[in-house]
Design brief:
This protein is an alpha/beta fold. The protein is built from 21 helices and 14 strands. The longest helix is centred in the middle third of the chain and has 29 residues. It binds FE-MO-S cluster (CFM). The site of FE-MO-S cluster has 16 residues, from helix 3 and helix 12.
């Protein structure tokens, strides 16, 4: 099939918004941007983190999902109780592919349990606090966990149950840490609000409560890595090879004690900026631990991230070890990459996921010569698109004001700046360390690419018909709708039972998986012969 050349992004944008009523169309037009990286590195403004218009089929999830499912859920020894009707209770179970590895079979691992207060009409009318207390007691008697977390669903906020008072009372009664989250599904415009709420409570109730010291020379935390498909295992192994001690990961393969002890680290490495930048900032303010953005997705990204960490510690031996690990791992990556690249070069991809992967995974596609023609986040904020430098310009609307902003001050006794301001400035200048910074998706994308925030299902179908990408990356809600159109769909949330995709080993897995998917011939057979016309149907061209 000869290619007619890439569609003009401006006309595609007009095509996407023209079906909407005027007001909705105007809003969508602000959320759909044709990328342009200007000489000074700036990019056009995008509207993000705003409500989805009623009637539009969005990819987004709710605030409860962001708090319980994303940030706290992967921690194996915090017992999570969902306070609400049993329907929401389903999501208190392990629905995300975050793996965990207790050191011995007798260590606590609750992440496959599903605990709900099963609210009934009676509690909606007369209040649910009594039932919640009984549930906490029952859970404690059954499991004797180190900590219990209580998560609020929509009705809890509507009827006004004081989950925090219940948590305080039960904490005192049971002698373990019990804390609650006001993470009602409606609390924010998406799951992003749930991340912030989870960050706040973790910081208030857990971080800093365990003073166990560590002798290791290089101690870090990994923030925003949730061990989907075993990614965190790969990163843990890599860091260990380099001689870097990982105190806590927030929150893949994590434990309560590791969070409590996280302030003993000397650096926070932030993987998913969107979900955890609040903890990174608060730890710096209270304990003096600086943070840098890293990306362990993609072989080059992994090498760069390891070098960033080594540079920070200013230690020649560590740097040599890191270089040795990179040199050992790279040849195997290069062999598979080159082999796969020969078959994938020039093919196109679209990525519409979450608040960080639609950016991170572009690197992997690039490594095998594939082009990202359109991308967007479900729930990211402007800084995730345009870079953190836009933060002062971001307008705080009523929905954002709804989420508590903790006021954090240096701890009277435990604030210990790991580097002086001068040292930080010097390091930041001579290397790519970029403390407290994140460039965002758009500055790293080509001009003329289409960026779509909170993409709707209608827009997805239009984009697929117009661009006919070789692969579309999204989630389970989109997967089969996309594949019925004859286009391969890779789940970038759950990895389709695959992975790990982080680090060097993960890059190899990803190259092979994408090679298999975009070169699969099955898509050409989707149309029965009696429907075929002289020219191939629009939707079957992905297999070209
Ligand atoms: Fe961060 Fe995530 Fe993501 Fe996210 Fe998520 Fe996820 Fe995601 Mo699904 S924390 S923003 S809320 S990288 S669950 S592990 S894949 S949408 S792009």
């Amino acid at each position: 099939m000869s290619s007619p050349g890439p569609p003009d992004a401006r006309s595609v944008k007009n095509e996407l918004v023209k079906i909407y009523p005027k007001k909705v169309g105007k809003k969508r037009a602000d959320q759909i941007v044709v990328n342009e990286v200007r000489g000074d590195g700036s990019v056009p403004e995008i509207k993000a983190n705003v409500r989805t218009s009623p009637g539009i089929i969005t990819q987004r999830g709710c605030t409860y999902a962001g708090c319980k499912g994303v940030v706290i859920g992967p921690t194996r020894d915090i017992l999570s109780i969902t306070h609400g009707p049993i329907g929401c209770g389903f999501y208190s179970w392990l629905t995300r592919r975050n793996q965990t590895r207790p050191p011995t079979p007798s260590d606590d691992n609750f992440i496959t349990y599903c605990l709900s207060t099963d609210m009934q009409d009676e509690q909606i009318i007369f209040g649910g606090e009594k039932k919640l207390k009984a549930a906490v007691q029952e859970a404690y008697d059954t499991f004797q966990p180190k900590a219990i977390a209580i998560f609020s669903t929509c009705p809890v906020g509507l009827i006004g149950d004081d989950v925090h008072a219940v948590a305080r009372e039960m904490k005192e009664k049971l002698g373990i840490n019990v804390f609650a989250f006001s993470c009602e599904g409606y609390r924010g415009v998406s799951q992003s609000a749930g991340h912030h709420i989870a960050n706040n409570q973790l910081f208030k109730h857990v971080v800093g409560s365990n003073e166990t010291p560590h002798d290791e020379k290089f101690k870090i935390n990994m923030l925003g890595e949730y061990n989907i498909g075993g990614d965190a295992f790969v990163i843990e192994e890599l860091l260990e090879h380099c001689g870097i001690k990982l105190i806590a990961t927030f929150s893949g393969n994590s434990t309560y004690d590791a969070f409590a002890n996280a302030h003993m680290a000397d650096l926070n490495a932030v993987m998913c900026h969107r979900s955890i930048n609040y903890v990174a900032d608060m730890m710096e303010k209270k304990y003096g631990v600086p943070w840098v953005k890293v990306n362990f997705i993609g072989a080059e990204g992994t090498a760069k991230s390891l070098r960033k960490i080594a540079t920070y510690f200013e230690d020649a031996e560590l740097m040599a070890r890191v270089e040795k690990v990179i040199a050992e791992e790279m040849p195997a990556v290069a062999t598979v990459r080159d082999e796969v690249k020969a078959r994938c070069e020039g093919k196109t991809a679209m990525l519409f996921v979450g608040g960080s992967r639609a950016h991170h995974y572009q690197v992997l596609f690039k490594e095998i010569g594939m082009k990202t023609v359109a991308a967007g986040y479900e729930f990211a904020h402007r800084d995730d698109y345009e870079g953190r430098k836009v933060l002062p310009a971001v307008r705080v609307d009523a929905d954002s004001k709804n989420i508590e902003e903790l006021e954090v001050h240096p701890d009277e006794t435990r604030y210990r700046p790991r580097k002086s301001g001068e040292e930080l400035a010097k390091l930041g200048a001579i290397s790519e360390l970029e403390f407290k910074d994140y460039k965002g998706m758009m500055p790293e994308m080509e001009d003329g690419r289409l960026i779509v925030d909170d993409i709707s299902h209608y827009e997805t179908e239009r984009l697929l018909a117009i661009y006919k990408p070789a692969i579309f990356c999204a989630g389970i809600k989109e997967k089969y709708a996309v594949q019925k159109l004859g286009i391969a769909c890779k789940q970038l949330h759950s990895y389709d039972y695959g992975g790990p995709y982080a680090g060097f080993k993960g890059a190899i897995n990803f190259y092979r998986e994408i090679d298999r998917m975009v070169n699969m011939k099955v898509w050409a057979f989707l149309q029965p012969p009696w429907h075929q016309q002289d020219t191939p149907p629009e939707s079957s061209q992905a297999a070209d």
